[in-house]
Amino acid sequence: MEIDFVRSRFIKHFDGKTGNIYASPGRINLIGEHTDYNGGFVFPGAVDKGVMAEMRINDTEDTVMAYAIDLKDRVDFKLSDPNGPRASWARYIYGIALEMRKLGVPVKGFNIAFAGDVPLGAGMSSSAAMESCFAFGLNDLFGDNKVSQWDMVLAGQATEHNYCGVNCGIMDQFASVFGKAGCLMRLDCRSREFQYFPFKPDGYRLVLLDSVVKHQLSGSPYNDRRMSCEKVVKCVQAKHPEAKFETLRDCTWEDLDEVKDEIGADDYRRAKFVLGEKDRVLAVCDALTEGDYEKVGELMYQTHEGLSKDYEVSCEELDFLNQIAKENGVTGSRIMGGGFGGCTINLVRNDLYRKFIEDAKKRFNEKYGHEPKVYDVVIGDGSRKIC
Ligand code: GLA
Question: What pTM was estimated for this model as a whole?
Fold first, then answer.
């Protein structure tokens, strides 16, 4: 994205003065879906697409003047307004500002203009890119950069929970803040320990196919899935009062089978997926260490199957893209992110890439009247100040 583009709009819409420019990326996730809020592992990386914002203190007590460049939409609001703005994009600014205040940052009035090139609703976390970018900017403008990266991750997550209606985990905000070019990251969402894994699969590439079915998590079955998992944990806990079960991470297959008849069939299948996915992330790490990409791919297909049949967060279009990948001999393919639309992530051998993409475009178009969008994955850096 062009710095000059954002700057010219900022100058035009406010008082002609420049501010500071910050950027934060969207993310991919190789494997480990719906495991973050279950205390499990995830394997994301930041991408080279994201959100860029220019921000400047405006010397008012608490008036925010905000301009969404891509939408050509201007909203002004006060941080003291208990309801906050209505526009969904402005709620991210309002929410993060209040969450940063909770962390001791004396946020006052500011002007902000922002733009993004991470596709909306594609499951690449455009919302986390916004939260991290705005948090980073406010920490710099008002907080002497005293808030830690982890606290900014948590402020982004709290913004989703408290102002946007999505009870998400921490994967997206983590990836957006901590991303590093060329590296995937394995995060243990319970202990928050993580390692960078340089990712340069010799002879393979990662490509996303966007079904363009808009994935929208707020008010969606996403929160229901989380509730299902929590219900199962409660049930296991009731059976073992002597032990502490906080999330599905603490539950074994035996624990799950023990409560099978008490929890509904749906909840059982949801928990079964999560337990399997927890093991798959670790197996992918081993396979990557050994350079066994065919194994990585096999595990990705298993994840798709589980997300589609057990967790039920797929849709017809995504299952079709997965099927096309299989038929083209693509090494690994699965739904990426929260589900209910968005992209598949595909690990494909270089020599099969062209034919796969051509076939996917043709067959998807024949069936749904439009081609899927194709994004070649470039793993980029996390949140940063540009100037
Ligand atoms: C969304 C959420 C994340 C995570 C994924 C599924 O992207 O924001 O916290 O739960 O879905 O893995």
Answer: 0.97
